[in-house]
Design brief:
With 124 residues, the protein is α/β, with parallel strands linked by helices. The chain has a domain of 86 residues. Helices cover 28% and strands 20% of the residues. The strands form two sheets. A three-stranded parallel beta sheet has the order 1-6-2, with helices on one face. A hairpin with a 5-residue loop joins β3 and β4.
């Protein structure tokens, strides 16, 4: 059985190259966290009982202010449960050696949530 990928820090420095077999999980990719620090977000249940997420402009809409990385990761964990990865996306993560994000390795990151999902899949 293949080991889980490791999370690495992607950098914007000159001459930085991602290692081979690395999947970029930054915003703008299928794996990016849409929940940004410093923004207002609303989580609500729609008429069909499905949990929905929506960006908001202010707190007057019942929105929650995303204060830090930890909070953004917690919201991403809930978001990804209701927007599951498709087969091709899971396969791409499973076969990767590294997941690259701009988060520092010591900071909370949505990449850890993706690794948790992979870990749970390999337990079966």
């Amino acid at each position: 059985m293949k080991n889980l990928p490791t999370r690495i820090e992607r950098r914007r420095t000159k001459h930085f190259k991602l290692p081979p077999n690395t999947v970029c999980i930054t915003r703008g990719t299928a794996f990016g966290n849409p929940i940004k620090v410093g923004e207002w977000w609303v989580m609500h249940v729609d008429g069909l009982g499905k949990l929905r997420f929506r960006h908001s402009q202010n707190e007057f809409t019942g929105a929650t202010y995303i204060e830090d990385n930890q909070m953004a990761v917690e919201w991403y964990r809930q978001w990804i449960e209701h927007h599951p990865l498709d087969y091709d996306q899971r396969k791409r993560l499973e076969t990767a050696d590294h997941l690259a994000c701009f988060c520092k390795p010591v900071e909370p990151c949505h990449g850890d949530v993706l690794l948790d999902i992979l870990r749970k899949q390999t337990e079966f």
